[in-house]
Amino acid sequence: MKGESKLEKKQFRAESKRLLDLVINSIYTNREIFLRELISNASDAIDKIYYKTLTDENLVFNKDDYYIKVIPDKKERILKISDTGIGMTKEELEENLGIIAKSGSFAFKKEHEIKEGFDIIGQFGVGFYSAFMVADKVTVITKALGSDEAFKWESTGVDGYIIEPCEKDSVGTDIILKIKENTEEENFDEYLEEYRLKYIIKKYSDFIRYPIKMNVTKRKLKDGTENEYEEYMEEEIVNSMVPIWRKNKNELTKEDYENFYSEKHYGFDKPLKHIHISVDGTVRYNAILFIPEKIPYDFYTKEYEKGLELYSNGVLIMNKCSDLLPDYFSFVKGMVDSEDLSLNISREMLQHTRQLKFIAKNIKNKIKNELKNMLKNERDKYEIFYKSFGRQLKYGVYSDFGANKELLQDLLMFYSSKEKKMVTLEEYVDRMPEEQKYIYYAVGETNDRIEKLPQIELVKEKGYEILYFTEDIDEFAIKMLMTYKDKEFKSVSSSDLGIETCENEKDSNSEYEGYKEVFEYMKNVLGDKVKDVRISKRLKNHPVCLSNDGEISIEMEKILNTMPNSQNIKADKILEINVNHDIFKTLKECFEKDKEKLKLYTNILYNQSLLIEGLPINDPVAFTNDICKIMI
Ligand SMILES: Nc1ncnc2c1ncn2[C@@H]1O[C@H](COP(=O)(O)OP(=O)(O)OP(=O)(O)O)[C@@H](O)[C@H]1O
């Protein structure tokens, strides 16, 4: 044996050199994942032993004998990752670590025709080399199952590797990394720090199914003293092994989910609702999703990143996989773990999105159903949710040209003039009187302000319910929706309300005929500020209001004009005059006797109608001067 121990320095194969360079410099965006890769390899190696014991009756798998140990040595700048897995023979060392991108695990899988339910993570054969991102030199000491020889593989990177026999007592593999010296840009010391290693293990490998052990520093009171402490080392299992999402729902309490929510830093609040999904179909996956109670501070900003954590068989692949959530459910937090994902080489992105698409669609429906159930059975909770995230659902109705409106329409709620609380569209439509043609809504800054709008008088008098829209997005979403259960939406400010007034049309028209000139004159005074001046059919007590013709409402004009690059979009405004109000007599008198006064009054009335609408007055100084003129 010893006679053979001539140093065999071998070159990596040519294509491997280039690949090694690629691994070290560009495949991974984050150095710390080297530990995830090495731990995944160790876990695979233990899986392989386990698999052998299933098929070889001479072997027994004693769970306690199988673990991974991470041992940092700050002084020597050494980080060692040991496992009690299957180990490698000399040939396997040569094959697996001499040719980059040759995955022994993939070959093992093929060779043993591994069936469902038994999963080995490695498949590309590059993970191991990520060690060179943090180490100058990597040494592998390994003894294969069933062999009494051990071998050492050593490399400092692109210049090749050596393999020589060595001593090792037990079956398994030690990966020994000589950690690089710090540079100006990079702090490599952190990969020797206990707390940092623990953090990385927890982050990426918490759910590896074998124990990952580490000796950790603890403190205790020194014997015979009252306040002197001494440090000692104790072995600890760092990972939690069985992930909560693989547990049976019945075993878990609300607190378990809440703890998971805060451990994972999904939010500082308590989740309003959790959804635990286990799917065992064509694509198998487990997921735990949360609907938060409170809006994350950056939720309605550009900085907010939606997405779910994505695990492949217990190993974290992506922190925020945005493809898993549609924008309208971007408030959902949580994770997905699947055994069936096709990963790409760095495990950072997914090569094929078919499985991911399937999972995303599934998740979307689950969230929708959960929200529907909440709305039906836990109304108070739903209202809390809606207060925080209702706006996002409305954006969902509006965006993508209304592609998701059907899915979301039953989740919408608005404040009702009648019920004095939030109601759904279904509730509104179900109690509509038979003769009511439209779903009426009014737009304003607050419910109180809408309540006082002159425009709502007629609809209210008719006894019809009005939905109050107080958020910018509301009217845009509703315009996209167009109808709900075949009922069209109608703004109380639109020129045609579709309500038959009590006075017959002829009467009011003849009245209009009589005063046509007055309105024509007023229209001329206002020029193109308004499209028309008309008799109001909706006003009961108030003298004037604005309404609009066409698709763009006055509220929409307001919102559109606050946007960058707004094209000064204008609603077609109608100045409506209440002919039953005394003001009308005054206007008529002025028309006959004092045209200058009629001009003055017209401008004042117009500006008043703007104020009621919450629109800016073009010339506030002129307006106050006009008011003064009538005071003196
Ligand atoms: N600790 C270990 N014990 C036994 N064999 C190992 C160990 N580490 C690596 N190997 C062998 O070396 C091969 C190459 O490892 P490497 O991490 O480069 O690729 P992989 O795990 O197969 O794929 P991936 O790129 O997905 O990580 C593995 O497939 C495995 O056969």
Secondary-structure blueprint:
Layout: E1 8-10, H1 14-27, H2 33-55, E2 68-73, E3 78-83, H3 90-98, H4 104-111, E4 135-143, E5 150-155, E6 161-166, E7 172-179, H5 194-205, E8 212-221, E9 229-237, H6 254-263, E10 271-280, E11 284-292, E12 308-312, E13 315-321, E14 333-338, H7 354-377, H8 379-398, H9 405-408, E15 413-416, E16 422-424, H10 425-430, E17 438-443, H11 447-451, H12 457-461, E18 466-469, H13 472-481, E19 483-484, E20 487-491, H14 505-514, H15 516-526, E21 532-535, E22 544-549, H16 554-560, E23 572-577, H17 582-593, H18 595-613, H19 620-631
Parallel strand pairs: 2-8, 12-14, 17-18, 17-20, 21-23
Antiparallel strand pairs: 1-6, 2-3, 3-7, 4-5, 4-7, 5-6, 8-9, 10-11, 11-14, 12-13, 15-16, 15-18, 19-20, 22-23
Helix pairs in contact: 2-5, 7-8, 8-13, 17-18
Bound molecules: adenosine-5'-triphosphate (ATP).
Keywords: ATP-binding, Chaperone, Cytoplasm, Nucleotide-binding, Stress response
Binding site for ATP: 37, 41, 83, 88, 96, 102-104, 123-128, 173, 347
GO cellular component, one term: cytoplasm
